[in-house]
Amino acid sequence: MSVLTPINKLKMELNDNNFFVKRDDLLPFSFGGNKARKAVYFFDEIEKNNNDVIVTYGSSSSNHCRIIANMAASRGLECYIISPQEGYEETSNSKMVALFGAKIIKMPLNDVANTIEQIMKDLKKKHNPYFIQGGGHGNIGTEAYVHAYKEIKDYEKEENINFDYIFLASGTGTTQAGLVAGKIKAEDINKKIIGISIARKNPRGGDVVAQSVRDYFMDGKDYDEEINFIDEYICGGYGKSNDEIDKIVKDVLLYEGMPLNSTYTGKAFWGMKRFIEETNIKEKNILFINTGGTPLFFDDLGELIK
Ligand SMILES: *Cc1c(COP(=O)(O)O)cnc(C)c1O
Question: Cβ(94) to ligand 1 under 6 A?
Answer without folding.
Answer: no
